[in-house]
Amino acid sequence: MRGVISAPIWGLLFTALASFAQAPEDGLTSRELGILQEPPSTRAELLSRGEAVYDYWCRTCHGAEPIKPGTAALQAKYQGALPASLTERTDLTPAFVRLMVREGISMMPFFRPTEISNADMDALAAYLAPGASAN
Ligand code: HEC
User: Fold this and answer.
1) What is the pLDDT of residues 15-51, one digit of tens each?
2) What is the tally of structural domains in the chain?
3) N or C: which end of the chain has fewer CB within 10 A?
4) For position 53, which CATH number holds?
5) In whole numbers, what is the pLDDT of the chain averaged over residues?
């Protein structure tokens, strides 16, 4: 039986992996989200668009649950000196958000303008850095 993993072992492995797998996120499909080319005209629309963009592209890794890889990495980085969840941060600036999203960092991928348009980036930056002015 050397080199052969028996069926019950595979079953156990599968069950263990399945319990760690992330459930699919709720929310909009890519088609429903779409890609905005012109920023919304009101501040309220800008913020709600930013939240939708965040929910679609970022929450998978930066959701509040500590198991999310972005949240876990930021917990390790700041050791609680800053909130691990991005939406609880009050120190983010639009320029920093843009830089991270366009360049990526460590295991965080960069996002192209064909994924997150400049208009959507403005909305995302406004949502994550609501206290800051345009830049
Ligand atoms: C695949 C997972 C993943 C996705 C998707 C992701 N991130 Fe990240 N993000 C990370 C990780 C991991 C880090 C921490 C990297 C490090 O410094 O070790 C990070 C870091 C950041 C930082 C830097 C925070 C700091 O203080 O250092 C910002 C800002 C950020 N992400 C914003 C976003 C936004 C906005 C989105 C959505 C467009 C996004 N991320 C999508 C994984 C992700």
Assistant:
1) 655 555 544 557 899 999 999 999 899 999 999 999 9
2) 1
3) N
4) 1.10.760.10
5) 88
Q: Is 107 in the pocket of ligand 1 (CB under 6 A)?
A: yes
Residue of the CA atom closest to atom 43 of ligand 1: 108
Domain interval for residue 127: 41-135
Burial of 75 (0-12, 13-18, 19+ CB in 10 A): middle
**Amino acid residing at 103:** E
Instruction: Please tell me the predicted confidence (pLDDT) of residue 8.
Output: 74
C-beta 100 within 6 A of ligand 1 = yes
Q: What predicted TM-score, i.e. pTM, was given to this entire model?
A: 0.84
Instruction: Check the CA dihedral 42-40-33-60 and report its sign.
Output: negative
